[in-house]
Fold this sequence. Notes:
The protein is mainly beta. The protein contains one helix and eight strands, in the order ββββββββα. Helices cover 6% and strands 30% of the residues.
Amino acid sequence: xxxAVTHTRTHLTITPANPFLACQQCGKRAEEFHDDACGCxxxxxxxxxxxxxxxxxxxxxxxxxxxxxxxxxxxxxxxVPHPAALA
Length: 87
């Protein structure tokens, strides 16, 4: 979680634990989510993805990611190619 203070409000961004989340619109990795509690106009979708600034949903690009073990694709599936943008 990160706070950024501007002259008019305090912006809260949340860093997801899963590093394999990507924006459905552009495919760029979702490094942070912007919380609308600061009063920003987020009427275009449920969340604002950072750093691409698209509003909307995201995809999980790792089918076996878990909060305790991280990516277990090698053990679970033998191997799953993840997009090169995440390397």
